[in-house]
Predict the 3D structure of the following.
Amino acid sequence: MLTAIVGINWGDEGKGRMVDLLSESYDVICRYQGGNNAGHTVVNDKGRFILNLLPSGILREEIVNVMGGGMVIDLEHLCGEIGALETKGVSVTPENLKISHNAFICLPCHKAQDILEEERLGDKKYGSTRRGIAPAYGDKYMKKGLRMGDLLEAWRLKQKLYEMLEWKNLTLRGYNASLADSSEILRWLYEYGARLAPFISDTTVYLADAIRTGKNIMFEAQLGALRDIDYGIYPYTTSSHTLAAFAPIGAGIPAAKIERVIGVIKAYSSCVGEGPFTAELFGEEADALREAGAEYGAATGRPRRVGGFDVPASRYGVQIQGASELALTKLDVLSYMDKIPVCVAYEIEGAKSGGFPTGDKLLRAKPVYEYLPGFKTDISHCRRSQELPEAALDYIRFIENAMECPIKYVSVGPGRDEYLTMN
Ligand code: GDP
């Protein structure tokens, strides 16, 4: 079985916990895009873990984790993440972690460039996490840079780096910034490269074999549909493909067909960074929701913007992800509400529409809010749908109907067992 778990919204839907939960019946978990610009939070019996780069399956001993060629990897960050897991007793070995030789390296000069550009933009900044992801992907497509496999060929690494920096420094000069120092970066590459070298291989061979021998593979995405570089809210997107359709390519098995796409969808909206966020709530209503949902970035600690469930944006997300089923997360967060705000449509220049607008029309969209009855009960102990109050079931049915996609799982707390399967 090949399954993708993807975000329907802006990210932070709780994909990490769903992968952690469902990974039990999978042999291989594969991350296929992005870098350390977002984080999955997983809470289990070993503690609370924030994973920016490592696939969430790393927390289960028997699972093999693959970091695919579609990723960009900050070596220092990855070494730190592995180290943090090891101190909590999670072992990371070449047997349970395999890094594609095709994955692109996010260098310190990419991070520097990201910061310089955000500062140059000032008020018009994109809200980058400043971790170098956009410059790294940009360079990848300019075909200037290093890949993980280069770390295994140290004699060519130096020459490749010099050639790349010659070009990169043209850009840094334009910012009047200090130039990238090749010997410093080379030291960085040697130090962290030596630690990661045992994990690097041609993962396409491993995955092809895994498919041939009937292994169950789960593809794990970072961020959500609305952040996809091509189909998201451009330019307030990430720099990679967050869609399930990209999973086989980013993972390294382009011909594979994903059979099951689980869309993770949050019971309300949240968004990190800049850009249109039509359903956004403000003031006390927003503060209460942010606090109830602990909406602060896992990678950056930044407070997230919050809003009610956004029907037009989520319908678009479900469609563009090709979700075959949904996992509705964080329903418990709404327990404090007397009435639950839902953005049921957008109003653009006086016309009401349930569709998701393209281009600059989205900038002019205003939310049309309706309120559904609150359930005002602690639901975190519910483990069967029959135990949920009627108002909570009505809310679930409302979303299911609006999305035209079955809700298979509902999570009612961050812990591994705090969820229920709908029947
Ligand atoms: P991801 O990137 O999609 O994995 O999402 P994040 O990890 O950034 O955000 C999800 C956050 O919500 C984490 O802190 C989770 O522990 C928490 N979380 C996930 N599911 C639930 C839930 O059902 N209820 C509550 N209260 N928190 C949840």
